[in-house]
Structures are given as structure tokens and as C-alpha cells.
Amino acid sequence: MAVCDGDTAEPGGGALPWLAVTPALPDVQTVRDRLMAAGWLEKSKSRRQSKVVRDDGVVAVCLPVVYGVTEAQLLEHGFRNVMHQEPPPSAEAMSRGKQSPAARLTSAVSDLLDKSGVSREDAETLLSQLPRRWEQHGDLILLPKAAMAGEQWVQLGPALWDVVAAALNVTKVGRKADVDQGPKRESRVELLRGHDGWVQHVDNGITYTYDATLCMFSAGNITEKLRAAKLGQPTEVVVDLYAGIGYFTLPFLVKAGVAQVYACEWNPHAAHALRRNLELNGVAARCIVLEGDNVEMSPRDIADRVSLGLIPTSERGWAVGCAALRPDKGGWLHIHDNIEVPKGEDQVGVFTRRARQVEATLVELNEAARGQVWVARCSHVERVKSYAPRVFHVVMDIEFRPQLSV
Fold first, then answer.
1. CA 55 to chain centre
2. Which pLDDT score, from 0 to 100, does residue 85 have?
3. What is residue 129's predicted lDDT score, i.e. its pLDDT?
4. Are 39 and 69 in contact, with CB atoms under 8 Å apart?
5. Whole-angstrom Cα distance, residue 398 to residue 354?
6. Read out DSSP for 41-84?
7. 8-state DSSP, 150
8. The dihedral of CA 212, 213, 218, 219: what is its sign?
């Protein structure tokens, strides 16, 4: 998913996959030969291979793929590091010059208002209401909540969304709404154009597909997903108590290469997308999806590492996470939390105080359940992002082990 600033110029056309290959193994020439054998290597002079820096910081080589080849095809044939690169502008886009997306949207909607007989005064009012920013999920543009939602907009009918889609080079248009504040935190996106909300997005070489009208996708967690990809070890068993569509399950499997993940998810729409994503990334054999309430579904006494990726708090799952750890040597809990920093107080001090509180709570919960004394030690508090004024989404890395093994 990308957050798009409508005032920033961009080339026309939709996103196409390019293959990014690290200069290590497999080497560039090997992958070039495989692409050529499949007939997928683009040979046009306008699209040549070039060096790039991937999201994980690795310097790689972009090998252009011919138009029409999908990410699913590339992944199916073992090409894992797929990046997106915008294609050259179409003739229509060239004729529009280097207009920003917002300018293209304004121009297209202005033409529609004129053809619809809207008065100049009303047209000026409506054009002033056009959004300047939006989100892009694959080929879906997601407009801000309440954008273009008044009665005068409604009267323009489906033609309005056809114009918006054409101006922004997508096939689907949706509008954000407040996230359901129930325990499953379901998306409430309103689909304005398109048959369904299914989109596909590549994030750090991992492909995610999901129905944006039913599932949430947070681009703001990219740094934490990159970090999670470096935490797991190939011999480890991981329990993900709030798996969603695979935000952390997939980095653990695809990037860290852990031995097994038990992924708990009680939103059926997210669980469906998770299963598709596991197949799409070729890691379904190493993941067991447990659909339902993690209090009932989570395995016990098996994990080296537990991910509790739920905000504003994952506290309901703390006892479950403790029970999932191996009884002989314990392991790691990665606890997501929202922490408010009172005005005038030191942020680090507030984070540290909260970590001490969590450590104490874990010890009490575990002693009550196991009848044993364990030791909890928070080794790091990662600030992920600002959630609200003076409220921060953080992750506490807590090592939790039986006292005799510490």
C-alpha cells in the first residue's frame, strides 16, 4: 500500500513487476538466463536493468519483466524478490504533460461537471472539496473518509468513479470509513467502483493479497515487519497470536526462515487472505492457521517466540502468550502496546516504566498458571510510530525464562 500525495507528479499507467536480484546467489546472469528461457525478459532499450536499493538495504539489480507477466507467475516459478516499477507514460499521459495526480483529477472531474450541466459556482465549490491525498492498494485508490460524499456528488452517479479511476490510473475506487472498534477490528471501506476489493501489494519482497473492503493493511508498520524478519531463527517455532493477513507471520517465514509458525486469527476474512498469502509466497507447508479466538486455539508449551501484534493493547493475550512458550526454557514475547507520554515527561522514562509493569504482570500471570517462578527481562522497546498526540505504538522485546535457566 502506498500513501499518495496528489501534488506529486507520477508517470501514467499501472504498476508492473520488475525482478530485483541481489548480486550474490543466485547471480544476476543465472536469473537473466532463467527469465530469457521463460520468455519473460524485457529487451526494449527503454527498459534496461539498473541498480536499486531494496527496502532491506541490499543493493540489487532490477531486471525488467515483459508486460503482462504477473507477480503470481514470478513467485510460482521461484522468483522471490519482485519489486514494482512504474512503466513508461502512455501516449495519453504524455499528452497531459507532467501533471500531478491531483491536477489530473481536478481536470477530469471539472470536465465531467461541465458535461453534466453543473453551474460554474457549484462546480467551483465541488472542485474545492477534492481530496489532495489518498492511499493506493494495488489497483485500488482509497479516498479519505467523507471525501466526495455529498448529495451533489451522489447525483453524478457511476460516471464520477469512472472518471476518478481513469484520472488516477486504477480500476477500483473506494472510500475509507471508521474501523470497526469491535475485537476483530474489521475494515469498513465502501467500494465505489469495481466488482470486489481484492488487491495485491508487494512489501519487502513479500506479496500480500487481501480484500481492502474487509481487511486492514498498515503500511506504517513496515519498519517493524523488517525488524521481525531479522529476529527469528531457522530452528525456531513461532506463535503469532494476532496474525491478520500475515503482517508478521510472513516475514518470520519468508525472511527469517523459521521452522514453523502457528498463526491465530479470529477474523474469517483475514484468515482467508492469510491462507492465500501463505500459498502465494510458497510457505504454506510451514504454517498452521488456527482460526478462532486465540485464548481457545493457541498451542501450549511449544514456542520459542510469540508475537502479540495488536493495538491499542495486546494485554488480553499475555497469559496466552506465556502459556505458548516452551516450559523447559521459555523464550521471547514481542508485545505491542500503545503508550501515552504525559506532557513534560521523558519519553524513554515512560517507556521504561511501562516495560517494568509488563514484566511484573507476566511473572504474576505465569506463576499463577504454571506454579513456577520465571524471570522477565525487557531488552528493547521499539517505537514503531505515533498513534495519536503523545501516544506511541511500541513493541517490547521481552525475554521470559524459568528462573533456573536464566
1. 13
2. 52
3. 94
4. no
5. 12
6. B---TTS--EEEE-TTS-EEEEEEB-TT--HHHHHHTT---EEE
7. S
8. positive
Nearest-Å Rg of the Cα atoms of the chain is 24
Q: How far is CA 48 from the centre of its chain?
A: 29
* 8 Å CB contact between 382 and 394: yes
pLDDT of 266: 93
- C-alpha grid cell for residue 88? 513508461
Give the three-class secondary structure for 202: strand
CA distance 229 to 136: 24
Could you tell me the three cell numbers for 329? 526454557
Mean pLDDT, to the nearest integer, of 30-51? 71
**How far apart (Å, rounded) are the C-alpha atoms in residues 282 and 275?**
11
C-alpha cell at 302: 511449544
Cell of 220: 506504517
Distance CA 293, CA 299 (A): 12
Q: Which of 214-228, 333-347, 368-382 has the lowest mean pLDDT?
A: 214-228
404: Cβ–Cβ under 8 A, 6 or more apart, which residues? none
Cα maximum dimension of the chain: 80
Distances (CA, A) of 210 to 19, 189, 368: 22, 13, 40
Count other C-beta atoms under 10 Å from residue 55's C-beta: 16
- Poorest-confidence range of 60-74, 214-228, 251-265? 60-74
Q: Which residue has the cell 513461532?
A: 238
For the ranges 42-56, 66-80, 207-221, the maximum mean pLDDT occurs at 207-221
- Residue-wise pLDDT for 159-181, tens only, equals 999 999 999 999 999 998 876 65
Phi, psi of 34 (to 5 degrees): -65, -40
Distance CA 228, CA 222 (A): 10
Phi-psi group of 83: left, alpha or beta (phi > 0 → left; psi -120 to 50 → alpha; rest → beta): beta
Grid coordinates representing 225 are 515487519
Q: Tens of pLDDT along 200-249? A: 888 888 999 999 888 877 665 777 888 888 888 999 999 999 999 999 99
